[in-house]
Amino acid sequence: MRRTQAAGRGAILGIVAAGTVLFAGASFAQFGALPKPEELVKAHAAEVRVEQDRRTDVVVTLVILDHWHINAHPAASENAIPTDVTIEGSPGIEVQATAYPAPHVVKLPIDDQPLKVWDGRAEIHVPLQVSKSSALGAHTLKGTVRFQACNDQVCLPPASLAFDARIDVVPPGGAGPGASAGGGTREAAPSPEPETTQGAAPAQPPSSSTFATAPPAGAAQAPSPLASSPLGGLGGGGWKSFLALFAIGLALNLTPCVYPMLGVTVSIFGARRAAPPLKVFGSAALYVLGMAVMYSSLGLAAAFTGGLFGGWLANPVVSIAIGLLLIALSLSMFGLYELNPPAALLTRLGGAGATSALGIFLSGLVVGVFAAPCVGPPVVALLAVVGQKGDPWFGFISFFILALGLGAPYLVLGTFSNLLQRMPRSGEWMVWVKKLFGVILFSIGLNYALIAIAPRLAGWVLPAALVVGGLWLGFLDRLGSARPAFRAFARIVGALAIVCGIGFVATTPRHGLEFQPITSLELASRAGDQPYVIDFSADWCQPCHELERVTFADRRVIDAMHAFKLYKVDLTRFDSPEADHWRRQFGIHGVPTIVFAHARGEEVREARVEGFMPPEEFLRRVARARDAVAAIAR
Q: Which of 227, 247, 224 shows the shortest CA–CA distance to 236?
């Protein structure tokens, strides 16, 4: 008997150790392996359009790998190798002294002195002087970045990367709207200081995380279906998101597929055989550990395939298919069909046949997938959240916390066995909880489908779910054998949901700013008599619709925008030639983007808006734009 228990404990330790090694290996492969120079730093020079006999800047953007940095220019000491960015000139194009941004000063364990570094993203300006005799047309200049990369433990040898800078030289007056005061247009943001420049990108261009709705590379459309769904906020990754995941895990224990198994499963831990509390707790912890390993693995798998998942979502057909799948799964929560496996398998996976530590661990490992069909549909929706975020650490920790929520009752009930007698009896209230999850899952699926079919209707899914779900679950659903106290609880919850849904609709403004569609040719030929605003948006962009519904409908914003001519550019087909032209001309990284410009076409860069912005902050941007316009007029 002791040999069997020892073997079981040894097997458990072996499984846990193997899982730890595998996870550590994956982490090392992602973060610890020494990357190649082209992985450490990615260099990109924004395309420039410049008139003859004018000066302009080429903006070289360096994107540095996470957890690494490169020395700034100048470096902190003579021994440190500074980062150098050089561009070779050509006949008629003279390269002048490079301007480098301010460094970050950091103190690292590998160096006694503070270091001047760049991390994340850095923009370097290389001024060019184009002569009168410069040949018209496209010029490709060769550039080089020389750098030394370090992390908190090691510094790599210096390395060099090559890049190309494309310069389009046009005749005087040929740069058109979007040209800078110096006669050039840029694809990306040039200067870190606030100034006015036509068509330039913002003073601090967004990283990829700024726009949840920025399409993936090569995609014409990129829906963000989870942005307004009931699970959309879970992608933030803060403590509130993790607390919500833990609460979801706890709530899933109340479904009819899981709740009846609690007492049976806890009993095999020894809680009803007067076993020592420490032993019972250890058995329950092994069971929960098995659940955590399974769910965390699912989260990691979803996160590591996040790029592929995001690419699939660029296709509206895939978005519709996912929506229909979630709707179909929600129907099982309403009782239209059952996903239950055979009862014998449920009992086995629930742990009733487990007689050793290994058996208890393996039962926990598989119970979350096979023995809890009520858990499956919500887990599919959460996998979509993790896959869209594409962060392995978030995928691991979020599903680990979800598993802790699912397993918490086993730990508590296994340790304090007297609580088993106080648990509510199974009844129709569990079916009501299951239907509640069904309403949530149905609304998520509907949101997915509407983002692809009718994106302007997607914002109404939440209030509709609150009103319809509250009316059905609170007042129309039959709770024949349920206790009066639970019936009262259901009515209170239903009434609150209806009130919230009606309040959402009632507070939604009916009228807002009206923007006039405009093409690039119309903008180029417009009369310069009034400052203007361009709203870059897309049908699949949920924050764009939120900006229209909330900010552009605010009476204060409407009054403040009277001084501007309002234009709208539709970037739904993000990779079309027309959209590509707009993106290059104004340095658009994602939508929504709001550009303020003087009457003669110079952008007020410090007023640019990127992403959703509430009315109060938007009004401050409008005030900056009006002050800049007034200063030019004087």
A: 227
Q: How far apart are CA 551 and CA 534, in angstroms?
A: 15
C-alpha span between 85 and 65 (Å, rounded) = 18
270-328 pLDDT, tens digit per residue, is 544 556 767 777 888 888 888 888 888 888 887 776 544 544 555 567 778 878 887 88
Find the helix or strand (DSSP H, E) in which 51 lies: strand 48-51
**What is the token pair recorded at 456?**
């302007």
Q: Where are the alpha helices (DSSP H) in 426-532?
A: 428-453, 455-458, 461-471, 484-506, 520-525
Q: Count the alpha carbons within 13 Å of 312 in the hemisphere toward its beta carbon.
A: 14
237-280 tens-digit pLDDT: 567 778 888 888 887 777 656 665 665 566 656 544 556 767 77
Q: Is 595 helix (H, G, I), strand (E, B) or coil?
A: strand
Here the tokens at position 153 are 């433990």
- The 10s digit of each residue's pLDDT in 568-602 is 998 877 777 888 889 888 888 778 899 999 888 88
271 neighbors 413 (Cβ within 8 angstroms) = yes
Structure tokens at 589: 């990284």
Question: Where does 305-355 have alpha helices with state H?
Answer: 306-313, 316-333, 343-349
Instruction: State the pTM of this model.
Output: 0.45
Show the CA angle centred on residue 214, arms to residues 213 and 217, nearest 5°. 140
